[in-house]
Structure formats: C-alpha cells, structure tokens
Amino acid sequence: MATVTVTAKLHNSSLSRRKEWQHATRLYRDTKQFCIDGWENSDFDKSVTTASIDNDLYSAIQNQAIREAKSDHSKDGEVRYRESQPFAVNNQNWELDMTENGTVIVGFPCVSQWWYTPIEVYADIANEVHRLVDGDVDKTRLQVYRRGDDWFCTFNIEYDADTSGETPIGVDIGERHILAVTASGEDESMLVSGGEAKYVRRKYRSLRDTLSEAGALRARNRVGDKEQCRIKDLNHKLSRRLITFAEQFESPVIRIEDLEGIRVNSSWSGVHSWHFHQLQQFITYKAERAGIRVETVDAYQTSQRCSECGSIGTRDGDHFSCSECGRGRHSDLNASENIAQREGEPCTA
C-alpha cells in the first residue's frame, strides 16, 4: 500500500469562511485540551464522547479531536496546546468533486454548515487529485489550517503499489545514537550521536531545578518553553538529515519502529523527556513531501536478533555479535538492518 500526501490551497476564500475556519481551529484546540485535562484530572475515562463536548463544532470534527487527543496523551502524557490546531475530519466526512467546468471542490463540515470550496490544483498534485475524483484511490482524514493569510487543506491518498525495485531504509531511534540508519542491500549506513539531545536535557533540567529552588516559577516555565524549542529544532535537523540520506537511493521506502511502546520498553531514563513521536512525525511529513513512503514495523527483538541469519545474538554496548554465523556489527546498525528487512504498515503524519 502506497501513501501520498496532497496539500492544496483553498482558492479565494470569502471573509465569512475564513472567520469561521479560524473559529473552528480554536474550538478544535479547546476540545483537545478539554479531553487532555479531563484525563489528567481523572474527570472522566478514555471513553469520553461528543456528548461531553460543549461547543458548536460538527460532531464528526469533535470525534476527530477526541481521537487525536487520545493519541497525543498516550504518547506524551500531559499535553498543553498553546496554539490553534488544524481542525480535521475522518475520511468518511469530507468529499472531493469536480464541477462541469473542471474546478475541483473540497467539501467539509465546520461550525455553521458544510463548506464547498475550490482548491488550487498544481501540477505536482494534479494526478493524485484526479485519481481521487475518479474513485481510483482511497482517502484518509482531511485537515484544514491557516498559514499566513492563506488557508490550506491536506490529506493522504492510498493505493496498492508495486514495491519491486524499492530500497528499504531501516531507522533505529535510540539513546547513544539518536538515529541509526541502514539502506538494505546498498552497504550504506548513517549514525547520528545522541549526545546533543542528552546535553539539552541535562542543561535544562539543571536550570529548572535551580529556578525551582529559588522559587522563580515563571522563569522555570520559560525555561521549559526554550527546551521544547531546542528539541523541536533538533528533531527538524535530524529528520532532514535522514531524508537527504534516503534520497540518494532509487525508490527509497523508510521503515521505522512502531513507537507505541517505546516509553514502556526503553531502559533509558531520559526516554520520558524526549519527543520520539515528534521526531517520527517530522520524518513522516518530510518524507511524504519528498515522495518517499514511510512504514512502521514491529520493533520486537530488532536489537537482539542477528540481521544476517536471524539468530539471537549478544549485545555488548555498541557491538553486536552472533555466535551462529560469526557476524559482528554495530548494535544499533544491526537493529536498523532488521527494521529495514521487515514488512511494514503505512505511516502518516
């Protein structure tokens, strides 16, 4: 299954439309925050429904906000949404159609009504858009968001694809090496040290402790914001390096571990303060923009098994050795080779 991201500008939107969409982004943020706060304060359990949401968003949008809040909370724990959020609906609650004069229209619910708005179909998305209009591909959720003075929508299309001739790129995310990457069958790899990530964590933890002891709580909160910015910047740089590495190969497909259980299974104490999910999101959307498919694979025993023969080997720090076939390999690169060799599921940002 191939997944392609389509981003299109909403064409010549009226002032009334833009005002309602902006209102919807704020309501969407508030809905997600309401859910997060309720779970953190044990006001209700994860089975919360739209009956508990007191705003004017269409129920389909409220349901999507609840789903996204659940996902964010399960991966990152307590979450604070400081900015308006792109509002979204699932694949069944929006549509794409073409008028008799060839204008492509996107339709989606919002607050007061469904809106039907023309989109600008650029050359690089025309094929995907027309395949969706013709019913040849499946669509995923739709997101609507603002950038500057313009409004955009983004969605994914999915279709069966011929995977022969692809170059699997296995990516292992860890502590000592934040990225260990192997291009299967190409004898090419990349290791990125996790030293900078650990330095950022130590630095800001020390600053927070010092400010807490001094009772400077506002300054402590600002330090937290600065740490988030540093982490976000580092994740952007890491994801860009990975995409650049992958682009040198013919028909690359990036395979990464399913990070759902990484906070539970990792022995690294710093895993709880590192945004693995954010890094995966950055990798995914940058890859999709570059036309590279991203898949998640089961992480079970990727660090314990030999990537050459599949036997359980021995890991000693950065070195992995296999007594069955005699192979020796950097332990994180061995894991990334195993990831590259596994069949994956489509991953979307």
From TrEMBL:
Keyword Hydrolase: yes
Keyword Hydrolase: yes
Pfam families xrefs: Cas12f1-like_TNB
Matching InterPro entries: Cas12f1-like_TNB (IPR010095), RNA-guided_DNA_endo/Transpos (IPR051399)
The entry's keywords: DNA-binding, Endonuclease, Hydrolase, Nuclease
Source organism superkingdom: Archaea
Transmembrane domains' residue ranges: none
The Cas12f1-like TNB domain, residue ranges: 276-339
GO molecular function: DNA binding; endonuclease activity
Name of the molecule in the record: RNA-guided endonuclease InsQ/TnpB family protein
